[in-house]
Amino acid sequence: MSKKASVVPCGFHPASAPDYLPVPRLRDLQLQRLKRIVQRAYDRQALTRKRMDERGVKPDHVQSLRDIEKLPFMVKTDLRDTYPFGLFASPMNDVVRVHASSGTTGKPIVVAYTKEDVAVWQEVMVRTFAACGCHEGDIIQNAYGYGLFTGGLGAHYGAEALGATVIPISGGNTERQIMILKDFGVTAICSTPSYFLHILDRVEGMGVNIRDLPLRAGIFGAEPWTEAMRQRIQDISGIEAYDIYGLSEIIGPGVASECQEQANIHIFEDHFYPEIIDPETGEPVLEGQEGELVLTTLSKWAMPMIRYRTRDITSFITEPCPCGRTIRRVQRIARRSDDMFIIRGVNVFPSQIEAALLSVEGTLPHYQIILTRTKGLDQIEVQIEVTPEVFSDKVGAMEDLQKALAHAVANTLNIRAAVRLVEPNTIQRSEGKAKRVIDKREL
Ligand code: DLL
Fold first, then answer.
1. Which among 227, 262, 243, 238 has a CA at the least distance from the CA of 359?
2. How far apart are CA 103 and CA 292, in angstroms?
3. Cis? peptide before 274, omega within 30° of 0
4. Ligand 1: which of 245, 293, 351 to mutate, most ligand atoms within 8 Å of CB?
5. How high is the pLDDT of residue 11?
6. Mean pLDDT per 10-residue run, the chain (443 residues)?
């Protein structure tokens, strides 16, 4: 626990009631909603109808939650192929909002909300904030980007409905972020974890001691981050750092959130039905085993997503959470199946490298992985910033640190990586999602 205790220990808000439903009631509710949404998708989404017809599956074949396995999957390219509005199930008149996510190539993917969908989104974000110990009276600085990205407006509506005071500052302009953090008595901040680290880097230079501020909680998400990263953030700032998860295709932020136990994320499964499958075979994995998270929107009217393959890798946590929530938890999302790169035949995820690097003292949690190819051989270089003390210290200390880091990486990955220690503030910062891997290999 960090030094600033939360004011409301249990993290309850009236909107959080579904978090605590008795499991049989929750399953009934899910089934009712599943039947309704599958019917809607079949009636109004040409792609879903075509795929179900090809398999000979009709909406009334869904009579139990297990029957969801009869339904076809949806994948990201479905959104690209039907760009921009091909998956909308509501007439444009009923669509009150669209968002889009840029992705790495070509056209963005577009998502839609009816008025009721926006209300559901707001509800799940209230539940998110409440689970992270926020409440009426909090002053919440929202540094997620506003605009087509779902982070800004998603958190905004939720924080307002919670009864908090929202500061809609959006991402960027770090000095102004710090001025407002200090002058407005901010008690909670929303941003990507990497951007908050950047804010922390700058705080001291502005003569502000973050620990003297009323800031108590960070509501962090939109990118993978490790437990080691959480510890660093909490140690430096004295706040409690919570992990929140979501994706545009499903609703935006508000799909899952940690509670004050800080022990993995609860899925708001009365609205988003989770499955975990083997990404190779598409079959469900055994309870507790790792696989790809598949989500079905149980109540999203404008754009239902049936069995959407998120590419995020996780597993169900089988033990109940001490917080008393009955909605299921999954392991925090440390990696995506498409994050993985292969280096000299070894599969590597950036999060493994992050955990290895942060196990060594004397570094700052800013790093980047650079992949190159010389004479047909893959090379991996890990650049990491070191603390100003280490950097100005004797060469010997730098060498020792470099060896310790190379050793930690080799131990975790079983491959040798070149580790380069760099000065504080040399690795490029992002106002949103951090770019961890630069792949310069010509494939
Ligand atoms: O990042 C929505 C969001 C905004 C979530 C603010 C949390 C806070 P997209 O831009 O569509 O939506 O990106 C979704 O980001 O499939 C994950 O791979 C990753 N992601 C999101 N949250 C987390 C998290 C928003 N807490 C993609 N941990 C997802 C790990 C995350 N990965």
1. 227
2. 19
3. no
4. 245
5. 66
6. 46 90 98 98 98 98 98 96 97 98 78 98 98 96 96 98 98 96 98 95 93 98 95 96 98 98 98 97 96 98 98 97 97 92 88 93 92 89 90 82 94 90 91 92 73
- Where on the phi/psi map is residue 132: left (φ > 0), alpha (ψ -120 to 50), or beta? alpha
Instruction: Give me 328's structure tokens.
Output: 């299921």
Q: Specify the amino acid at residue 292.
A: E
> What is the per-residue pLDDT for 1?
43
Q: How many Cβ atoms from other residues are within 10 Å of residue 70's Cβ?
A: 15
Tokens (6 digits) for 26: 């929750």
Domains, in order of start, for the chain: 3-22+110-337 (3.40.50.12780), 340-439 (3.30.300.30)
Which residue, judged by its Cα, is nearest atom 15 of ligand 1?
222
Residue 61's pLDDT is what? Answer: 98
Which run of H or of E encompasses 38?
helix 23-44
**Cα–Cα distance, 185 to 183 (Å, whole number):** 6
Core vs surface per residue 402-435: b (16+ CB within 10 A) or e:
bebbbebbeebbeeebebebbeeeebeebbbbbe
- The protein residue with its alpha carbon nearest to ligand 1, atom 6, reads 151
Q: Are 383 and 422 in contact (CB under 8 A)?
A: yes
User: What is the Å distance from ligand 1's center to 318 Cα?
Assistant: 23
Q: Which string of b and e fits 94-133 if b means at least 16 CB within 10 Å?
A: bbeebbbbeeeeeebbbbbbbeebbebbbbbbbbbbbbbb
143 φ, ψ (degrees, to nearest 5): -100, 15
- Please state the atom number of ligand 1 nearest to the C-alpha of residue 311: 16
Radius of gyration for the chain, computed over Cα atoms and rounded to the nearest angstrom: 22
Structure tokens at 210: 């973050």
Distance 56 CA to ligand 1 centre (A): 34
